[in-house]
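Researcher: I'd like a candidate sequence for this fold, 438 residues long. If you have to choose between options at a position, lean toward the conservative one.
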């Protein structure tokens, strides 16, 4: 059946674009030059995706690595995807994996002929084995069971290794190895005349295992520098790797029919403070304020998206699945409830907003439910987020406006996400899952 679908896909008049999804690690909105970072970092390749396409000013991830990836791949809040157990604390090898019965982006795009791969940090499988080689094999098989045709996961995300095979500055550099695999894989797909979907999840600049920030191949003599200096070197080397991907797309002659998406997976680590339009912003990963989940998100699609444009609508990682499905001309499979809302109209410039509310469900921080201006936490506090990055301003709910806002957000949170669908708690849906095509 899949071969038949692929044949029909290839013979229709609709020319579906390749999709390259680049996700960096622990990068909040305040760290990127197109969004207002003024640290003096030099990142021309990443900047070019924003200036050549659309920048999302209000994209929201989850507050840490694994739930963000589950949300992105399934379009469902992480508990609905059987990814989180609030009684298990990271890190542990017994942490439950992403349910392979979930319908993922790779599944949906595969149904219409896309060939898919995931490369780099997976972070959605933690086996019981203790050897890295065994965990790698299991993680790569798990990714394939989640719908990907190919997987290259040399470090699944839970093993105590450094970026360097022989210790800091010595041996092979893990990000280079993954970068070579990803660019070669794209070349193989073009040579085979295959439309492809690549998710490339960088380890940079996550602190792996017990390691601190480390030197890159571009600054090997700076091992005694501060974390801030090393982090800058890592971001700038990460930009080089992104550039390698963009250069390969150009060299293969597919730039005009390839969507490139770049984003952070969650907020920046709290060990780093960045200058955001002159305001010092300390990373908020795993926290409850906006710095935990407001991330950079850029989409470049030549000939379709207006260069240097900005989308200010409230957005979530949950929205990526229905958007890419709509772009590919397909629909949700299997009747699975979904929490995403397509922002395809936003990419085309035909709409200024597509959703009203977002849930942040975390076992490591307070749950949040928010709209464009307000954030309600499940401890009862209400915060104004209109003037971020000047902080989430706590509001004392003493007047009618604030009281009604709390009632609205808290009631929606309870009604929409504390329901049980089937035998699975948290299997909630906003019932806002829409496509723009009939």
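Model: Candidate sequence:
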């Amino acid at each position: 059946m899949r071969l038949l679908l692929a044949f029909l896909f290839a013979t229709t008049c609709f020319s579906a674009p390749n999709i390259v999804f680049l996700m960096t690690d622990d990068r909040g909105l305040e760290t990127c030059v197109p969004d207002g970072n003024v640290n003096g970092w030099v990142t021309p390749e990443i900047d070019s995706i924003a200036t050549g396409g659309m920048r999302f000013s209000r994209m929201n991830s989850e507050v840490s690595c694994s739930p963000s990836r589950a949300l992105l791949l399934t379009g469902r809040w992480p508990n609905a995807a059987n990814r989180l157990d609030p009684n298990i604390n990271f890190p542990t090898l017994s942490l439950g994996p992403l349910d392979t019965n979930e319908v993922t982006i790779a599944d949906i795009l595969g149904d219409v002929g896309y060939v898919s791969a995931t490369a780099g940090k997976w972070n959605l499988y933690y086996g019981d084995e203790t050897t890295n080689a065994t965990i790698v094999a299991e993680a790569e098989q798990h990714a394939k069971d989640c719908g990907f045709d190919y997987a290259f996961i040399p470090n699944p995300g839970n093993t105590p290794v450094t970026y360097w095979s022989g210790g800091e500055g010595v041996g092979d550099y893990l990000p280079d190895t993954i970068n070579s695999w990803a660019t070669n894989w794209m070349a193989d797909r073009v040579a085979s005349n295959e439309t492809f979907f690549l998710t490339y999840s960088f380890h940079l600049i996550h602190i792996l295992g017990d390691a601190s920030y480390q030197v890159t191949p571009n600054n090997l003599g700076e091992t005694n520098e501060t974390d801030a200096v090393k982090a800058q070197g890592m971001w700038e080397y990460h930009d080089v790797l992104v550039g390698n991907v963009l250069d390969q797309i150009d060299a293969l002659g597919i730039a005009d029919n390839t969507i490139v998406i770049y984003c952070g997976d969650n907020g920046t680590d709290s060990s780093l403070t960045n200058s955001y339009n002159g305001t010092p912003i300390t990373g908020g990963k795993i926290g409850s304020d906006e710095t935990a989940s407001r991330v950079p998100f850029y989409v470049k699609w030549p000939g379709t998206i207006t260069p240097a444009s900005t989308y200010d609508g409230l957005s979530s990682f949950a929205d990526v699945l229905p958007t890419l499905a709509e772009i590919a001309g397909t629909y949700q499979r299997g009747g699975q409830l979904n929490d995403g809302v397509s922002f395809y109209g936003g990419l085309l410039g035909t709409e200024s907003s597509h959703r009203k509310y977002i849930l942040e469900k975390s076992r490591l921080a307070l749950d949040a439910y928010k709209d464009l201006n307000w954030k309600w936490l499940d401890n009862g506090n209400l915060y104004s987020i209109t003037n971020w990055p000047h902080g989430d301003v706590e509001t004392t709910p003493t007047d009618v406006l604030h009281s009604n806002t709390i009632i609205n957000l808290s009631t929606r949170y309870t009604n929409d996400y504390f329901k049980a669908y089937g035998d699975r708690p948290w299997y909630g849906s906003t019932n806002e899952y829409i496509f723009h095509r009939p």
